[in-house]
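Shipment paperwork, digital attachment
Item: protein structure file
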Amino acid sequence: MSTDTIDLTVMYAAHDAFRRDLERLAAAVSDGTAGSPQVRAGWANFKRQLHIHHTAEDSDLWPRVERGAAGRPRDVALLATMEAEHAGLGALLTAVDTALGERPDELPSCVDALAAALDDHLKHEEDSALPLVQEVLTPADWSAFTGRIRRVQGLRGAAVFVPWIVDGAPAADRARFLGALPPPVRVLNRLFWEPGHRRRGLWRA
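Attachment content:
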């Protein structure tokens, strides 16, 4: 059992950003701007960030937690449920894509279904899986997992991920997230990445 606390700041910030983006998509559907290039670009970025996040959990995080929880059937079953929930979200993402392209009348219900399912999954993870992470992993285990995400993102991906996380975040949440990053990353974000993100105007139809 781990006795050291793992810093989950970035994980919770990503969850908040996923919820925020689906709120923005729902607002765009409501006001009839879901077909605009900026909203489509926001949706494409949301899907990419979610894919990277869930793929890394399935390939690198849950197997580490499963090893730490060996001999505890309920905890192992929880991790299988996490992966199943990831898989189930795929069909809902596809349904939104199809509605955006071919079935606009179905778009509101598809977005609502995706938002509800994703929020349920994130809450389940926050309430059950992340406490298990804290219990059975070490900070070194966690660093190995987050290192996987950093390698997948690369510097170019980080230039999108960091300003995406803080876009519209409350001041306290923004400060907490940026404070968890290395100082050089904060400087790059302030001087280059956030200005570039604002120019892209994701979700701003």
